[in-house]
Write a structure and sequence with these properties.
- This protein has 318 residues and is of the alpha/beta class.
- It is 25% helix and 27% strand.
- The protein has helices at residues 15-26, 43-48, 77-90, 170-179, 199-210, 257-262, 299-316; strands spanning 5-11, 32-35, 54-55, 75-76, 94-96, 101-107, 110-115, 118-127, 150-151, 162-166, 184-189, 214-218, 222-228, 231-236, 242-244, 246-249, 267-268, 271-272, 285-287.
- The strands form 5 sheets. Strands 1, 2, 5, 6, 7, 8 and 19 form a 7-stranded mixed beta sheet that branches. A 5-stranded parallel beta sheet has the order 9-16-10-11-12. A 3-stranded antiparallel beta sheet has the order 13-14-15, with no helix packed on it.
- The longest helix is centred in the last third of the chain and has 18 residues, at 299-316.
- Bound molecules: flavin-adenine dinucleotide.
Length: 318
């Protein structure tokens, strides 16, 4: 294991992590490492965005002015990934993939970032591990026989299936509208309307339900799932249980509390405690991106957090 001392180690190569790396690089820092558990950067975008998905800068209607140097614009899943490929290529940031960080330990003035079989040493650390590493799952048990038909992304979907999408936010609506082109789709949401989704998605789902491409079951709670003749039987509190080929949950993600607490980062109301510069209770250890948000978060917000952290490390503290 290398004994190299990095100036900066960033845990998680999503938008916030890439921004922290690139903004620090632009302010003159070298020896920066981005550590990513997946096979490439931006695992959330790769796994949870459907192909050709429209990517909005002002996600969920939150208008965000970009503070930093990364000029991110509206686009698609593919153009957004190309954009991040390009900016990583242009700035010499070391990206180490297939490496899951277990925890961070402060040893004297420096950090040891613990990974399988060793550690990476760094002067500063930024944690940007997002919330989608652990997508929210239902409270009830999923019977083993149907586990493969219950998913949290669209990866396993094919064509001509009867599918239930569970949830009513932007992800659920986008999944339902996308899937209905080639499948028989029902969306099930515990509220009575789709007001949590952005205006474009609200319009899309209204059209799809009006023209019959998507059936909506609103104000209903799922009590559990059962296996029946190779299908997933969905048990609703309102009765009318029905069988589906597949059920997709799009109900958000969870703060990775165990990771944060094992690294000594204080948590309050489900979020890591940090000051206005995103520095935690541990000096030189920062948090950014979705993990700092109660829910939601966006690419543009993550980019701004990365810029703020770079400024704090390289300008304000000098
Ligand atoms: C379906 C869907 C659609 C969305 N659409 C939009 C949109 O149109 N516009 C928009 O602005 N936002 C959108 N968002 C939100 C946006 O994707 C997030 O706000 C953004 O990705 C958060 O960036 P982040 O860097 O904080 O975390 P993430 O993007 O979640 O990145 C975290 C990274 O950390 C890695 N990681 C996690 N744990 C570890 C570990 N222990 N060790 C090493 N690596 C680790 C993960 O693999 C991942 O690559 C959408 C989200 C979803 C789910």
């Amino acid at each position: 294991m290398s004994e190299k001392m990095y100036q900066l180690a960033i845990i998680g190569a999503g938008p916030a992590g890439i921004a922290a790396a690139v903004e620090c690089y632009l302010l003159g820092m070298r020896d920066i490492i981005l550590i990513e558990k997946d096979e490439n950067h931006n695992a959330t975008i790769r796994k949870f965005y459907k192909d050709k998905k429209r990517v909005d800068k002002d996600w969920k209607g939150q208008t965000v002015e970009l503070d930093g140097n990364i000029r991110f614009l509206d686009g698609t899943k593919e153009s957004t990934l190309d954009f991040f490929d390009e900016i990583l290529e242009k700035h010499s940031v070391e990206l180490r993939t297939h490496t899951e960080v277990q925890k961070i330990v402060k040893t004297g003035d420096d950090f040891e970032v613990m990974i399988a079989g060793g550690s990476v040493k760094a002067k500063h650390v930024v944690v940007t591990i997002g919330r989608m590493g652990k997508p929210n799952k239902p409270d009830y048990k999923i019977p083993t026989a149907i586990k493969k038909q219950v998913a949290y992304t669209l990866d396993s979907c094919s064509e001509g299936e009867k599918i239930m999408v569970v949830g009513g936010g932007d992800s659920a609506v986008e999944y339902a509208v996308d899937l209905c082109e080639k499948n028989d789709v029902t969306i099930c949401y515990r509220r009575e309307n789709f007001r949590r989704a952005n205006p474009t998605n609200q319009k899309d789902i209204a059209e799809a339900t009006e023209n019959g491409s998507v059936r909506a079951i609103m104000g209903a709670n799922i009590l559990g799932l059962e296996a029946e003749d190779g299908k997933v039987k969905v048990l609703l509190d309102e009765g009318d249980d029905e069988c589906y080929d597949r059920v997709i949950y799009a109900i958000g993600g969870t703060t990775p509390s165990a990771f944060l607490t094992s690294s000594g980062i204080e948590i309050e109301d489900g979020k890591p405690v940090h000051d206005e510069n995103y520095e935690t209770n541990i000096k030189e250890l920062y948090v950014a991106g979705d993990i700092t948000q109660e829910s939601g978060g966006s690419i543009a917000l993550g980019l701004n957090h990365g810029f703020a952290i770079a400024n704090h490390i390289l300008k304000e503290k000098k």
